[in-house]
């Protein structure tokens, strides 16, 4: 993959516009198809040198054209190849028709394919352009291939996956490998698409980067340091703890203090100059027994908080981990409406009966970060969460606009969205990050970055990335305490 394009994610519509613009610029579109098909054939031979038979499945569009080229190259290379086509190949048009004409193999209708031991399936049925559920005959073949346990090499995207959302449209191949061209698509990174793609390779078929950049909206990208490193605070020799930010984390009652401590330690490790846990008076002793570098301040009710907030150095807060659900949480959030706030867990659930009450508090420049998992998202945005027409990125963006907040829509494919329409898909989180307390650590990291002056969206995105990196350092079997200990500043 071209380094210049490595961060871009193009939707299927944007990639179609790239293809059209490339053709309009005088680039031979069939030459691009030839290179794509040749790359697929080369990948098949490299990955499956011992295949007894390559089974090439050709669809009715340009993805099928790529497959016909691949089949031709495999046959010319002496590999055993059979071909099955969807719909009437005589109705192919343009480059796909030319690719079919250049392939000497006589194909059979798709429904006649019966898997055999030693088969390797090359999937060129639909690619990323599918916008409806797969037909019944395709579903039947997908089921037969899965039952036989055959390896699948997908061209562009496993057929049955939505290239924009990563959703399964009725049924989809589970590929062991996927080869795509020039850039990735959101469906390569979003679940379950990421799992169904297997190992992904991006092959440069020769479309100039300037054409791709001209058609790329840049709205959706992978969450990488390039997306936010430009706003990181410069390191200064002459500084002090308040210049690096003061983060406050609210603690729950005496028997629910651990979550706040993990958030606080994580915020300190992420670079905040100092961190204070604000706890009920009855929980001070429980917290003090486990803390050294983190300070403590007694806060029992909203009146105590209002008095404390006369100190204008207090600008950044985390509320939610272990805090408890209810009116007290809502009152604290109301007091913090003019400050920067990471609202997590119990803090989010406290507004489930009237989410708009929360949203109305945080107008103007975004300063609120919400970190919902699937259930919390549905409680705060029930209509958006239940809209099956929307993918995860679309849902996160709609929520960000409504709440005027940076949204961290958590999961294996965490999406970070901004009210201005930017969205990032995170990919560096290992599976073992799914453990109790992991979200408390994430909230603290984001709070620590907010305290250092990062804007809400960039703090959220960088925090999610740091969270994943810490998990890799901690290794399999980590606990949340170990995860927090492995957080490093940017």
Describe this structure in words.
It contains 20 helices and 17 strands. By secondary structure, it is of the alpha/beta class. It has 2 domains: 3-216, YjeF N-terminal domain (Rossmann fold, 3-Layer(aba) Sandwich), CATH 3.40.50.10260; 225-485, UDP-N-acetylmuramoyl-L-alanine:D-glutamate ligase (3-Layer(aba) Sandwich), CATH 3.40.1190.20. Helix 9 (258-269) links the parallel strand 9 (246-250) and strand 10 (274-279). Helices cover 38% and strands 15% of the residues. It starts with 11 loop residues before the first helix and ends in a 5-residue tail after the last helix. The strands form 2 sheets. Strands 8-17-16-15-14-13-12-9-10-11 form a 10-stranded mixed β-sheet, with helices on both faces. Strands 3-2-1-4-5-6-7 form a 7-stranded parallel β-sheet, with helices on one face. The protein is elongated. It has helices at residues 12-24, 29-47, 62-76, 94-101, 136-148, 186-189, 193-197, 209-215, 258-269, 284-288, 302-308, 327-335, 346-349, 355-359, 374-380, 382-385, 392-403, 438-451, 456-474, 480-485; strands spanning 53-58, 81-85, 108-109, 119-124, 152-155, 177-181, 199-203, 220-222, 246-250, 274-279, 295-298, 316-319, 340-343, 368-370, 406-409, 415-417, 423-425.
